[in-house]
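Table S2 (continued). Query chain:
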Amino acid sequence: MISAGIDLGTTFSAIAHINPEGIPTLFPDAHDADLFRTPSVVHIGEMDCLVGDNVENLLEDQPETPVARHTKLLLGSRRPIYIDQLGRDWTAEAINALILSKLRHDLQTFAYDGLGDAVITVPAQFGDTQRRAVRRAAELVDINVSSLVDEPVAAATYLSTHHSAEQTLLVYDLGGGTFDATVLRCSPDEISVLATDGDSRTGGKWIDELIMQLMSDELERLHGTNFCQSPATQLQLRQLAGETKLKLCKPGRTQVRHNTLIGNQPFDFVMTGHHFNTLIEPMLEENIDVAERCLRSANVGWSDVDQILLVGGSTLIPAVREQLARRAGRPATEIQSRQPHKAVAFGAAILAGAATPQHRQRIPALRQAIAGYDLGVRIRDPGTGKLAIYKLIKRNAALPTQATKVFKTSRDDQTRMIIEVVQSKGDATNALSLGNFSFGPIANPKANYPIEVTMQYDSEGIASVHARDAETGQEMTQTLSHDADLPTSDNDQERSLVASVAINA
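Corresponding output:
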């Protein structure tokens, strides 16, 4: 069995392992040995499904084909996001399970062996429900996850194998649909995460959509408002937008022109490099603001950072490096970009392979991970009457960690204490509810009866709650999860649904 690292991405996913020479290596696509990344797109038929390039090829001939795309951004929601040809509902977890199954098939095709333990990477800004959703997606296809690792940590692990000195590192991870800024202290022996911050509405997907909107506006001006609504037109716009972005990433390319037919109508579209940079400048400036906020949380400045590491395909856009260099006050040539598409998967493979007897290479140990979110209880401020968050654990706290607070009942007849557990970044209005924790029945109910509540983050940033009645010794622990609210039959049905379709090989 082969231990592997999996980069489950918004737009592309990849699986890697440590080869016999001790080098991290990607597995190619089972159908095309020249392809080493899988587009994170799925189409489900009656008895089988297509994942990756097979879907993109199908869309060329049948643009109206329904597909599920960018579903990583929807992980954590139990709402159906896709309806297949038989009318069956699919959640984001189930779709991502199919992507994971396809990656395993790639491994088995070229390694002639099965997938053992897997390390799966997640954005540092993924909260509790999203991290659980990744684990559940793997469980649906019987992939054993040895650990979830933050993407910047995986990238830093890969980079640390190329350096011998201790250094402070800023990982600037701009991918297909998320942005993470993470400050780490790295040495050949260990990695400590000092602070992390991020944004889940940025990256290559959003850049493509900005360009698509420009194209759509021009088409509507020329040919009418309904022209752009057809699946064929949307597919062409998506492809043209992606091509435009990629071409403008090439050195010396100052302009891209598309003179083509869309829906049998002529379309002449020109985008200059200056226009492109102006279009994305607000997004890139917001990303750098996030990075500076992360530096402040780590109590370091730009001058304290020894290396800035660019990770993620969107960092290949020249303006990313240029704007970051200006704000950091250093030459753009000093900002590193080593395997931006592969660094996360390579780092995950190193972490997965380090535990196996055949790969006894020396890698840095993750000494300190941190919490990406505050963890607390939603309360109503007695002074203002407004909703607020009482924080038990603050974000950027070292993991694992826990904190205890005594809460008191409010009425003589109160037999249960119900608290809403939330994650936040300091803003009560945008806090994410992890569900209600109910403790009881209380044996001797009365007003102001004390209950000790302990909240905990484990080493992967997954939350749990423990409550204790100090007078009676009664205790209750709950690992928070949206799955806890689902009947067992629903869980079994989703597993059966995923098993009912086969990856088309």
